[in-house]
Automatic annotation (TrEMBL):
PANTHER family: ENDONUCLEASE NUCS. It comes from Arthrobacter pigmenti. Belongs to the NucS endonuclease family. Pfam families: NucS_C (PF01939), NucS_N (PF21003). The lineage of its organism: Bacteria, Bacillati, Actinomycetota, Actinomycetes, Micrococcales. This is Endonuclease NucS. Residues 2-104 form the Endonuclease NucS N-terminal PH-like domain. GO terms for cellular component: cytoplasm. The gene is nucS. One of its GO terms (molecular function) is DNA binding. Its EC number is 3.1.-.-.
């Protein structure tokens, strides 16, 4: 990799035209042929660049450019198009080259495969009596992330996402429709599990009779002690189930610990079952049903005072 700090102006010529006026910038020339122009801001994103495959030629400036103080012109031509990056260098401040070798690549942590492995190992997070049938259960339209059996012997199809949106609910719906055609499996229940589930996805899942489970990745891999968290913060401990009033549908909800701001905004009395010092520790309050978010309204009753 070649690093150059220089006062330069930059012009991109191709499907569109772009111009960077004269300023001090960092120029990166990588071994794959790419050239990137960086400033001292803008985080990781370059101001302009040429993607590989490309060829860099350093030429003498035209006479009119030399009169303006240009000492060197970089012409970066893309190999598969007419796109061209022209860098006019007025002053070289630093130049160095470094051999970085072969990079092993980025190893990601917390991807869907990690969530799938951990949930398969801790299948009882779904509830008592759950057992694993298999991971990546193949169907004609794709693999179901986890196939399990609940305490009553019913088959459960689980779709896992890092961030759960409506597309994931639609995907699980297609799996359930197909699996329920098999008389040896039907009825098959669906569980949509993710680290974060968008409100629209949760509403759609509930409407289709699909349970939602919010996963705490750090707690699942044993690097976060849930019981030692501060009581004054909103915390997703583990998904639990509650019955939606008037519908009789079992809907998993988050256990909730409120902050002082929540109490001031929503008001109300102390959560039942909490007395004395436990009131200050738990900080859950009696809900005003019309003002509170739905998941708080349903989760504040009928569970132990201190999670």
């Amino acid at each position: 990799m070649r690093l150059v700090i220089a006062r330069c102006s930059v012009d991109y010529i191709g499907r569109l035209r772009a111009h960077l006026p004269l300023a001090t910038r960092l120029l990166l020339v990588k071994a794959d042929g790419s050239v990137l122009v960086h400033s001292d801001g803008g985080s990781y994103k370059p101001l302009n660049w040429m993607s590989p495959p490309a060829t860099l030629r350093i030429i003498e400036p035209a006479p009119e450019d030399a009169e303006l103080g240009v000492m060197q012109t970089w012409n970066v031509q893309h190999a598969k198009s007419d796109d061209r990056l022209v860098i006019s260098i007025h002053e070289l401040m630093h130049e160095s080259s470094h051999d970085l070798g072969v990079d092993p690549g980025l190893v990601k942590d917390g991807v869907e495969a990690d969530l799938q492995r951990l949930l398969a190992e801790q299948i009882t997070l779904l509830g008592d009596g759950y057992s694993l049938i298999r991971r990546e259960y193949m169907t004609a339209i794709g693999p179901v992330d986890i196939l399990a059996r609940d305490g009553h012997g019913r088959t459960v199809a689980i779709e896992l996402k890092r961030r759960g949106d409506i597309d994931g609910v639609e995907q699980l719906t297609r799996y359930l429709e197909l699996l329920n055609r098999d008389p040896l499996m039907a009825p098959v229940k669906g569980v949509y599990a993710a680290q974060q589930i968008k409100p629209q996805a949760r509403v759609l899942a509930q409407d289709r009779g699909i349970d939602c489970l919010t996963l705490d990745y750090d707690a699942m891999r044993g690097v976060d002690d849930v019981d030692s968290r501060c009581a004054g913060s909103t915390t997703s401990i583990r998904a639990s189930s509650d019955v939606t009033p008037g519908r009789g549908t079992v809907v998993p909800v988050q256990r909730h610990i409120e902050s002082a701001d929540d109490r001031n905004r929503w008001g109300g009395g102390v959560c039942p079952g909490t007395t004395g010092a436990g009131q200050d520790h738990c900080r859950r309050r009696r809900p005003r049903l019309r003002e509170r978010p739905d998941y708080v309204r349903r989760s504040c009753w009928g569970i132990p005072a201190c999670v």
